[in-house]
Design brief:
single chain, 131 residues, mainly alpha, 6 helices
Length: 131
Amino acid sequence: MVYSTVFSEEGLEELRRIITVRDDTGEEFEALPPDTDDATIDRLAERILPAVLRMREEHPRSNGPVADSPRGAELAGNAMAHAAAEFYNPAQLRVLRRLHHLLDQATDPHDDPPGHGAVHDSAPDVRLREE
């Protein structure tokens, strides 16, 4: 598993606590077909957003999960991106990019509110770009 090679022991334990919390969006994300339309991508990302914001508040380490990686943050981030590209289908990756954009908006008061200015394949998160 990639996680055990890139996270510190503390980071891995935090991840275990985080992933025990499940909701219907997780199941919907997992079942998402590769050819899902943009409107569905947007709706799912917007439904996931509150849970991720809550998780980040309850688990501050989740804001920079590889910051204390024994292999270094950059290498760990690259490994996680490659694992995501292998593990998730194109629509799931689009949800993650859209979610990343929504998270940026939620933490930057100068951006448009969530739900405005949808971003799909041109999202700024190069860590999740399909290769």
